[in-house]
Amino acid sequence: MTIDTLRFATAGSVDDGKSTLVGRLLHDSKSVLTDQLEAVEHASRNRGQETPDLALLTDGLRAERQQGITIDVAHRYFATARRRFILADTPGHVQYTRNMVTGASTAELAVVLVDARNGVVEQTRRHAAVAALLRVPHVVLAVNKMDLVDYAEPVFAAIAEKFAAYSRELGIPETTAIPISALVGDNVVEPSAHMDWYGGPTVLEHLETVPVAHELATAQARFPVQYVIRPQSAAHPDYRGYAGQIAAGTFRVGEQVTVLPSGRTSTIEAIDALGRSVEAARAPQSVTLRLRDGIDIARGDLIAPSAVAPATSRDVTALVCHVADQPLSVGQRVLLKHTTRTVKAIVKDIPSRLTLDDLSQHPAPGQLVANDIGRVVVRTAEPLALDDYADSRRTGSFLLIDPADGTTLAAGMAEGVG
């Protein structure tokens, strides 16, 4: 049996217990090494705590441990007998919204925590909105600290209904609410003995069983060329291959393909993978494609099946999350990096800035500052072959970069090309 991988992110307001939940998940699923646990126990004793503070398993920065908050995105890797997991523990503070975008951008599931005493708060709505914007297909509402409300079912039910209503407004396709206590372990890995009124899965059980239709395999096939291989040796005098990682979908020998942005067409003559020829290859495999015709192809070109090739354009409309400290302004010259292609561009317009609290649009802000999410119109110096982000998170995303020093300015999600 093949064990698949689930990428998921945790989010929530400050002090809702994200790091404790992650620590409990790792500890109770026996994914913590002995020396790691001993180090946490030692640090906890130095703080005067009688029991290990499991949040220390993920709060790795010194500032995080001193303040008791999450600042950076902490990635953790663990596995059970049923599935492998890549976990991104993201910050709760509003000024670190950009970090949550980073952590959730590749996630297939988001766990949003709330404190049972406080319910759905502003930051809960903000994180749910970010998950919706990033097209995260599955969202779990973990109602934490149920031990502090006497494990009361009506408290949980009211919070779950309020969050479900907001999620429907956002267009989130699926939400699952789970009552937990990360501190004592209720419904994290093991079912709770205190909440016999709850008949649903634990957090880990849900993570192990949630169906994940990996977009990389189901989206339209796309192959960004990373490197052109021309040995021109005695053994391979005529070899010409195009190496890279398949960004989405499946390619097959004999398939007619189009090379973008040139628009030239050819047929896949062979696919080389791990030193041997194969009849088909799918995302996210790294392969070398060989075409029947000698087309001028370079790094940054995109190969796609002719029947579903994307259109090319120099005008891109997108939602962007601004991640740099310096603002992004109308008229600013930038570099746009899409897959393996980087082109010069200019910010033509910033039509609106999104207010995540109520999803309202603030028109014509003129610029975006750190953590802002807004709609931009970018004009590129050369045509690009982008997909809409709604169709493909991988080939519908891009970065805006400062050409002066290489700083990443914004992460973009294409809404319209042309």
Structure description:
- With 418 residues, the chain is an alpha+beta fold.
- It is 19% helix and 36% strand.
- It contains 8 helices and 25 strands.
- Strands 7, 8, 9, 11, 12, 13, 15 and 16 form an 8-stranded antiparallel beta sheet that branches. A 6-stranded mixed beta sheet has the order 2-3-1-4-5-6, sandwiched between helices.
- The protein is globular and about 75 Å long.
- The two termini are 45 Å apart.
- The model is unreliable at 60-71 (pLDDT under 50).
| Total number of helices | 8
- Category from helices, strands and their pairing: alpha+beta
Oligomeric grouping of the chains: single chain
**Total beta-strand segments:** 25
- What is the molecular shape? globular
Tell me the strand percentage band: 35-45%
Largest sheet: 8 strands, antiparallel
Task: State the end-to-end distance.
Answer: 45 Å
Furnish the topology, listing elements before pairings.
Blueprint: E1 5-12, H1 18-28, H2 34-46, H3 62-67, E2 74-79, E3 84-89, H4 97-104, E4 109-115, H5 122-133, E5 138-144, H6 153-170, E6 175-179, H7 203-209, H8 215-218, E7 223-224, E8 227-229, E9 241-245, E10 250-252, E11 256-260, E12 264-273, E13 276-278, E14 280-282, E15 286-291, E16 302-305, E17 313-322, E18 328-329, E19 333-338, E20 341-355, E21 360-363, E22 367-368, E23 373-384, E24 397-401, E25 408-417
Helix pairs in contact: 5-6
List keywords for this structure.
418 residues; alpha+beta; eight-stranded antiparallel beta sheet; six-stranded mixed beta sheet; 19% helix; globular
